[in-house]
Amino acid sequence: MLRSLYEAKRSVDRLAERAATVAGRGGSSYAQLGAARGDIKRQSARLKWPHAVPRKSASESIPLHYAGGDAVIHHDPGADAWWYTATGADLQEDESEAVHGTSAEAIARATEFLLTHDRPARHESA
After folding, report:
1. What's the pLDDT band for 80 if we cut at 50, 70, 90?
2. Helix (H, G, I), strand (E, B), or coil: what is residue 46?
3. b or e along 86-100 (b: 16 or more beta carbons within 10 Å of the residue's beta carbon)?
4. Burial class (CB within 10 angstroms; exposed 0-12, middle 13-18, buried 19+) of 82
5. How far, in Å, CA of 116 to CA of 65, rounded?
6. What percent of the chain has a predicted confidence (pLDDT) above 90?
7. Of 22, 33, 47, 59, which sits with the fewest C-beta atoms within 10 Å of its C-beta?
8. 81/101 Cα distance (integer angstroms)
9. How many CB atoms lie within 10 A of CB 101?
10. Cα torsion 57, 72, 107, 62: sign
11. How far apart are CA 101 and CA 31, in angstroms?
C-alpha cells in the first residue's frame, strides 16, 4: 500500500512539473504558477520548477506587426511585468504601463490597440 502511494505521488509530481513547464513556456510567471498550485509563493515555485519559466533578458523585446500598425512588447524585470508601445495604422500612438503579468497579456492588449487603430476603410466611387 505504501509503495503504491509513493508511486502515485511521484506520478502526480511529474504531471505537476509538466503542467508548470507548459504554463511557464506559455507566458505564466512563477508567481502565477505558485498561485495556481495554491500553497506556495513565487520563490518556492522557482525552486520547485527551475526550468519552467524561460528567462527573459532586460533588453529582450518582442516586435509585433498587425493590422497595418507596429508594436513592441517589453519586459520590466524589476516589476516582473510586461508593457508595450504601439503605433496604429492611423498613426495613433499608445504606451501601456508595466502592469501586464505575462507577455501574452501584453501582446493581446497591443493587438487590441492595433485593431482599434487600423486604417479607415476606403470609400470607392462607383
Report:
1. confident
2. helix
3. bbbbeeeebebeeeb
4. buried
5. 14
6. 25
7. 59
8. 5
9. 15
10. negative
11. 9
